[in-house]
Design goal:
single chain, alpha+beta, OB fold (Dihydrolipoamide Acetyltransferase, E2P), Helicase, Ruva Protein, domain 3, 185 residues
Length: 185
C-alpha cells in the first residue's frame, strides 16, 4: 500500500498530476485545493490514498493531512465514491467542510458536483459527530481574527478561506491581512 510519495512534478493539470518518483512516473488524482498549492515542475511530498480495484489502481494525493482524513472518511460513506469525495475536497477546505456539517447546510453540500439531496442528507447524517481535529489546530490568533471579522459583518466561510494561507502569530496582523483580501472580493 502506497501512503506517500515525493518527487518531481512532470505534468500538472487541475485534477491530476504526473510525478516522477525513483524512475517511475505516477498519475495522481488531486483536488483543486491541492492543485492550487503546487507549482509546476516543483519537488513535492504528497500523502497518498491508494484505491485498488479489480481493473485498476488509483492514487489520490494530498498536501494537507486534514484533507486526506476528510477524503478517507467520505469514501467510506455508502454511495460516495472517490470522484465525489475529491469534488467535495475541491469545493471546500477541511475547515469549511467541518463548518458546513456543523451548520447542517444542505444547500451548500448540494452545490458540489455529483451530490443530490439524498447524498447530501446521507453525508450530514453519517458525519454528524465527525470532527477532523481542525478547530483545535486553528491558533487562538486565528480564532480571534475570525470573531473580529465576523463582528464586522463578513461571512465565516469567506473569512476562513482568506485566512487559510496566513501564518501570522497575532490576531491584529491576521485581521489586517484578511481585510486587504476581503476588500478585493
Amino acid at each position: 500500500m502506497i501512503v506517500g510519495v515525493e518527487g518531481e512534478i512532470l505534468l500538472k493539470e487541475p485534477t491530476f498530476l504526473h510525478m516522477k518518483v525513483g524512475g517511475f512516473v505516477y498519475e495522481i488524482n488531486i483536488s483543486l485545493n491541492t492543485s492550487n498549492a503546487i507549482y509546476d515542475h516543483s519537488f513535492v511530498q504528497l500523502l497518498i490514498t491508494q484505491i485498488v480495484r479489480e481493473d485498476n489502481s488509483l492514487l489520490y494525493g494530498f498536501l494537507d493531512q486534514a484533507e486526506k482524513k476528510l477524503f478517507d472518511k467520505l469514501i467510506k460513506i455508502n454511495g460516495i465514491g472517490p470522484k465525489v469525495a475529491l469534488a467535495i475536497c475541491s469545493t471546500f477546505t477541511p475547515e469549511e467542510f467541518v463548518q458546513v456539517i456543523k451548520d447542517k447546510n444542505l444547500s451548500l453540500l448540494k452545490k458540489v458536483p455529483g451530490i443530490g439531496p439524498k447524498s447530501a442528507n446521507r453525508i450530514l447524517v453519517e458525519l454528524m459527530d465527525f470532527d477532523l481535529g481542525i478547530e483545535s489546530s486553528v491558533s487562538n490568533a486565528k480564532k480571534e481574527a475570525i470573531l473580529a471579522l465576523e463582528s464586522l459583518g463578513f461571512k465565516k466561510d469567506e473569512i476562513i478561506k482568506v485566512l487559510s494561507d496566513e501564518n501570522a502569530k497575532d490576531s491584529a496582523t491576521l485581521v489586517k491581512l484578511a481585510l486587504k483580501k476581503l476588500a478585493k472580493i
